[in-house]
UniProtKB/TrEMBL annotation, chain A:
It holds the Pfam family SusD-like_2. PROSITE patterns: PROKAR_LIPOPROTEIN. InterPro entries: SusD-like_2, TPR-like_helical_dom_sf. It comes from the Bacteria. This is Starch-binding associating with outer membrane.
TrEMBL record, chain B:
The lineage of its organism: Bacteria, Pseudomonadati, Bacteroidota, Flavobacteriia, Flavobacteriales. Residues 113-211 form the TonB-dependent receptor plug domain. Keywords: Cell outer membrane, Ion transport, Iron, Iron transport, Membrane, Signal, TonB box, Transmembrane, Transmembrane beta strand, Transport. Residues 1-19 form the signal peptide. This is TonB-linked outer membrane protein, SusC/RagA family. It comes from Cellulophaga baltica. It is a multi-pass membrane protein. One of its GO terms (biological process) is iron ion transport. The keyword Glycosyltransferase does not apply.
Amino acid sequence: MKNYSIYILCALFFTVSCTKIEDLQDDPNRATSVSPDLLLTNIETKAFNNVSLNSALASRYLTFTDGINENQYYNWQQASFANYDNIKQVHKMIEESEKAETEVYSILAKFFNSYFITELTMVFGEVPYSEILATGEENYTPVYDTQEAIFLKVLNDLNDASNALATNEELILGDVIYDGDKTKWRKLINTYYLRVLLMLSNKTDVASLNVIGRFQEILENPTKYPLFDSNEDNGALVYVNIQDNRYPLFNNNELQTAYYLEESFVDRLKDLEDPRLFVFAEKTPAAIALADDDFNAYDGLYGSAIFSDNAAKAVAGNASRIAPRFYNDPINEPSLLIGYSELQFILAEAVARTWISGDAASYYNEGIKASMNFYGISEVSAYLAKSEVQLTSAIAMARIATQKHIALFLNTGWQMFYEQRRTGYPEFNVDGGGTLNEGRIPKRWLYPANEATNNAASLKAAINRQFTSGDDINSLMWLLK
Amino acid sequence: MNFKITLVLVLLASCFGYGQQLIKGTVVDENSIPLMGVSIVVANSANGTTTDFDGNYTISATNGEVLIFSSMGFKTEQVTVSDATIVRVTLVEDAAALEEVVITALGIKREKKALGYAVQEVKGTSLEKAKEPNLINSLTGKVAGLNIKNSTDLFQSPEISLRGAKPLVVIDGIPDRSADIWKVNSDDVESISVLKGATASALYGSVGRNGAIMITTKKGEKGRLTVTINSSVLFQPSFTKVPDVQTVYGNGNQGQYAYSNGLGSGSEGGGWIWGPKVDQLDPSTPSGFFETTQYNSPTDAAGNLIPIPFTSRGKNNIKDFFQTGSIQTNNVSVNWGNDKASYRMSVSNVYQKGIVPNTDLGNTSFTVGGTLNPSDNFKVSSSLTYNKQYTDNFPEVGYGPTNYLYNLLLWTGVDVDVKDLRNYWREGQEGYQQRHFNVSYYNNPYFQAYEYERGYDKDNVFGNVAFEFNITPELSIKSTSGINVYSLNRTYKEPKSYIGYGNKSLGNFTNSDSRYFDIISDLGLKYEKSFSDNFSLKSEVAYSNYFRKSTIASTQTDGLNIPGFYNLANNAGASYIATNREEKDAIKSVYGFIDLSFYNAFYVSITGRNDKVSTLPKENNSFFYPSVSGSLVLSSLFTMPNAISFAKLRGSWSRVSEGKIGEETDPYAYIQAYDKGTTWNGNTSAAFGTSLLAPGLEPETSDTWEVGANIRWFNNRVGLDVAYFEATDYNNLIYSPISDATGYESILLNGDEFKRKGLEFVLDAKPIETANFSWNILFNLSKFRRFQEEIYGDREQTEGFIKVGDRTDKIYADVYQTNTEGEVIFENGFPVNDPYQRYIGEDDPDWTYGISNSLSYKNLNLSFLFDGRIGGLIYSTTNQKMWWGGKHKGTVNQFRDDANSGVSSYVAPGVKVVGGAVSYDVNGAITSDTRTYAPNDVAVNYINFMQTTSNGHNTNYHYYKESFVKLREVTLTYNFPKKVLDNTPIHEFSLSLIGRNLWLNSKVPNIDPDSGVDALQAPSTRNIGLNLNVKF
């Protein structure tokens, strides 16, 4: 009896004690190493996904009626450093690319890093770049770099990437933008390079950047530096009717309930009799009986108006909502990082600025045509012939910017806001009595609040270096001075 | 089904009782006071009984047999049956046994006076009448330091914190890391022991670091075969708290409303409840009331909507939609035991019908348990429970269109009558489009109840086996093994046109399966010896092994082809959305303790434990931690004043380390790896996580010390227990934030230090005790604070603005700018946002308390419990949204009428800036302020003002005082006298009127603050019902 019991005891115990701790120390749910193309896909879906309602409010395309929106009324505060997460993914792609002994992903990495850091510096001014962990530095409190240093690195990296890609013979896998077409990647990088140079239009006198010389170099060597030839080349993410791959505003309830077109934008399109109005907007409820192509059937809410006036106008049925395709069509239209039409407007402006020689009007007309084509409008000549449309040198800057504004409707992220900030065109209204930043359009965003806790010394140094009035949304960054 | 089982058991139960000599009598104590509940068994038989309220008993036995009379706190008495049929027995108090015995860690029974730490026990009998569907809810207010926040929603677990941290749940000595309390039926509970703090539960190791709630189930007692039926039914006929909304204005915006297509835009007013007044007389319309087109308007020949009266049809929507909920519980148990063996089986069923139509919850358990003593030196005990929790539909909680109150009350104007929404499909679009007044933002509540179904089906098995074998009288070998197993299937049926936040569903079906297994086995040696009357020793050393494996796999469709057909085969998309996960972890430990007792007055206990865990990197995954505690019974050492019957001091210190990272169960958090990224058009992708990993991670550690005193007065009739503790949590495994510019949000490292402090009082008293009447009071009171002692990296403050030395529950909120006088600053008539969050108050209550009373008069017993919290803040989403959306009663005023007629008349009290400027440092402190002010004189539209501010600056930004008192529990029981039952097979019979959550008093408007959070909770219900308890 005695022995028997002890056996039971021991048997019971030892049947369950055979697992070694060491055998349980690998995560069966996550991979510790992946091939670089898996990272590329993810990075692309972040970089090319550029549909932003906030930007559409700030850029006077749309208005919002469910409360006073800080983007529409220009009283925003902090923005986020979320793009650094993307830079980290790019860094991981470089790491995995080196492990796999391939080079092409590291070349593309230069473009993506340049794109993400440019997005960041456009928002805030100085931001950390040279010391950040994602680029291999073991530093949790990175210093902020001057915009000059950041742009110099961006320009050099873009140029290097373009050159390196021309000679690289490896395959690009996981590419959901160009399906591995390296020529198209070179076109994108060069086109984007021109955008960055144009953003530096106030800094043509900075010798290290050599803005005009770099711009000319591209145009003078079309074989070495190919550019977009048509909308086919657009840096575009095409949406698919699969969960998480649909147009980001698909089935968005607020878009169909609380957003309306902005009045000055609608008026401009009406003045120009621009057929793109019909692909952007829906008729007002009050004008539902009019024909779809009747310009009188469309109206908007004034971006800077007293909020209650807008709300009353919307309730009265006198404001156009956005065209239903934006929330009904899971594919709708591609999201652009940069498109062919923008390139044409960049070139037109460069001619107007006498950076390059050429016919500004033909670039300008090509830009309009490309935009119309993007929206499926093929008949453009009548529109181009209008005197309100035609490019004349005296008002070239305003007209180019106005057409760029129309062409970038609810696309290409915050680019149009930055363009307007740089050139002042087209005018974004602040005279309606409702704006909350003493009638000013902010020039930047405040640094993220947690930087004050996590990187205080670097942040303070950067603020003191740049702005006399502290971290303020109305201060001018170096780029704009 | 239950009734059949009951019948069988009743038949079984009536088989006993064959002709023998009937012995009657009374059991009294030395003062001739009758003793109830004295156990009487016939030695070496299954025959037994207990005395009734008056100390009377009846038992059959044959001449020469021995009757054993036993009762806790008395010496056992044996009487040999002779010819006498009336046997009066006097039990003598056992001084040593008088002291209460409680169950401590690992199920070890110890005298309460020997404990160096705080333990509070709740008897199972106090839980068996006024039941909650979740056992833990029934502990609310009954244990000092245990704070339970009860949810008002169906099938939502309460938030439990013991001394400010989440305690371990232990069932029969086996830790239940899945912490599923729903699986324990209160009828099966013998007692619940709450081990407060780390010392008390140090033997459980890291998992017991925050104290433990020890549930001991019934195992079968010595005595005759008894069958017990315990049955209750509770109804939820009314609400203790329901939002009080305005019924003056209806749907719409700016005083306008006209339905066109339900998309919400234009004249439909964007879903706001800032529409026209209802019931407005208008002589120009056919009805005599203001008329407008509505979702249920008839159409004319041309298909245009015809205006209909805009009236307050929906005044009773709450009453009309919610139904009377109910909770039925039935339990049948069979108990039998003698010297060699005891056995208990029990079957329980709990069925709860929700207040939302088509929602319910079933919970069924089968339990068997028993003990065997085949020889004097060998003891086996075991129990096994199968439990099933099942529902086809229970409500989703949280703010949003998935919440019933959101659709029914908050975002529906009084012009909509919910009764009219019972037909919830749009004509001609059945299956595709719900019918509602707004199909962009809201769900028809009936559509939601009957079409959006969330199923839950969980099978639990848990149990344990324990052996003890005495090698010598002093030395024994012990083994305990326990398992927790479950499989859980959850389904989510989402109909087409269902509205989620910002999204309209294409119809979807999700099927999710989880499996869980854990096993814990302990093998040890026990040594127990009394060296003399004045010195005894008890010690154990054991090896313990814990292993867990859990998996989850979930598959979801990407849209549905056939509406209403919920099967993965009905997927409309190109592929399924599927995830799965597997987790395994293990802990191997060696632990031991020594308990010493001197002169029955001085007690010392020392414990030690070493854990090796799989959840930390190999270098630092094995670690040791000790504890020591002691108790000094002053009343045994010194002569006390007459009034004092007992006095004791106690103290303890412990260190417990833990190798678990974060609150979640993820055992692999210390491994850096890639997550799945967005799959684009079939291309899978990967992304790297947001956290870095510091080298050399160590376990996190808590050092706790505690002192306490227990004094009893007036022959034990009044007792006070006081405990004070301080715990230092250091080496915490934290995700320390780093600059986002690094590409990472945080780094996982050992850092930060916190101090927890708390004070607990337990007062019990018997103000009145006579033969027929007694009154018992138990009062629990506790306070808890947590402080930031150190911030990693020598920072001024945390991301949440907490500085060293601050309470960690300080709340910083988005506020408006104010001038030095505290007046709100306005621009264009609207308040100006402060770019920095500001301090607004503290979250934790100052005191948590519970007062229970029990009054007995003859066969009648009344008990009731009040409990509540004092101080602290609660953020109320309900109140904020009511102000914002236009439903708050405070919005009924002249300004609103003005806004409705297009007049901007609201001038908010405050100032506007007329010159100067302000600048801030990076932490938001003002560095210079040259602003000058004039009174705000800009009149704005009242509706827009509320839509922008939610009246936040007048309501402390919707952080309300959380103080409340609740009448939690009332039970009125009548025990039928023995003589009434004499001629029936029934031995005991009681009937109770029960009520829960009957009355609430709090300063927070519109919500029940009990749950501690308000994300638009369900209305708080009053539960009233009956309980029936029969013992055969």
